[in-house]
Amino acid sequence: MYLYENRKKNGIWKTLFTIGITAFATVIVMQYVPNFVQGENQNSNTQRLSYEAEKNNTVIASQEKSTVDIVEDNMKSVVGISVLQPDGNSLFDINVTQKWGMGTGVILSRQGYILTNQHIAKSANSKITVTLENGLEVQGKTVWIEGNLDLAIIKIEAENLTPAVLGDSDSLRIGESVIAIGNPLGLEFQRTVTGGMISGLNRSITFEENKNTIFMEDLIQTDASINSGNSGGPLINADGEVIGINTVKITSAEGIGFALPINVIKPILEKLESTGKFEEGYLGIYAHDKEVLPYINTNLQLDKGIYVVSVDSKGPSGRAGLKVGDVITQIDGVEVNKMIDLREYIYTKAPNDKVTLNIMSNGQQREIVVTLGKKT
């Protein structure tokens, strides 16, 4: 009985001791574990934020490197163009001096074809010097020129040329990043790089030149800085491809420059590379798309097609019955809503090729077949 009572009392004390130890441990855990967990979470958050910052820095560095690579890849394709031109009223005037007009060009082919502006090349007989990226100067000859597009192709004889990669100007989207490379203010600041974005597509502008009103249409608008001397240089997309040729800058506004879509030149380049010459088919018309019509006549409205504003009466289209005021909607079944689309298609043809025009004439649809002439 005594032993049983003692054991019972000892059991009670042991139970109380166990409860006390458990309560004490619980207090310790409640006080210190949350702080420990919080500390671990803080360390984890710190590590995560550090990782995110490092990742973002890596992305930014990668983007910057990509831009640098694009510039470096295209720099060897950009050339300086100097054109000797008379500065005076008459070639027989003893006071006439000569000066060099400066501009930019871009190498299209290892065969030595270089694209620039018509207002730089001036004419087929201009004396042209091309300065390559390595400083070598070679003589150039104009092999194709088009004043209405302000484009010209020059041919040089040189080895180890690096041609630019041409992109697709028909797939451009407003907001895309672009880079312009050119020679502003002459060769002293050659291969200057500026950046921006595509601000607009299919733009039309008008300006006065030699007392004539000049229309330019289907242009790429960019806010990349384009200064005097940048003309003829490439406009390059984020993939490093040339998608336009810089041509004019609106002097009355800041941050507005324009480039001609590169696709229009591709059929010409293909023929030059394959045959060594380009014979342009002659349609014998001049037309505008709907963006230009308000400049000509505010009463004219056009939903689709291109509006014929002049016809060579003795030319191919005139002989086929095309008239001023007709609207061309298709050529060989291909829909055309921009003048540059019509030009691009005609450049794929040759003199004596036949093309079928779908037109709207006095509210009536009809087809005419035109045999292309040879443009001289």
User: Care to count the β-strands?
Assistant: 20
Helicity, as a percent range = 25-40%
How would a textbook summarize the main sheet?
Answer: 6 strands, antiparallel, barrel
Write down the secondary-structure element order: HEEEHEEEEEEEEEHEEHEHEEHEEE
CATH homologous superfamily (4th level) name of the largest domain: Trypsin-like serine proteases
Assign the CATH class of the largest domain: Mainly Beta
The class by helix and strand makeup works out as alpha+beta
Q: Termini, distance in Å?
A: 135 Å
Envelope shape: globular
Overall mean pLDDT:
81
How many domains in all? Answer: 3
The CATH architecture of the largest domain is: Beta Barrel
| Strand content range | 35-45%
**What is the radius of gyration?**
35 Å
CATH topology of the largest domain: Thrombin, subunit H
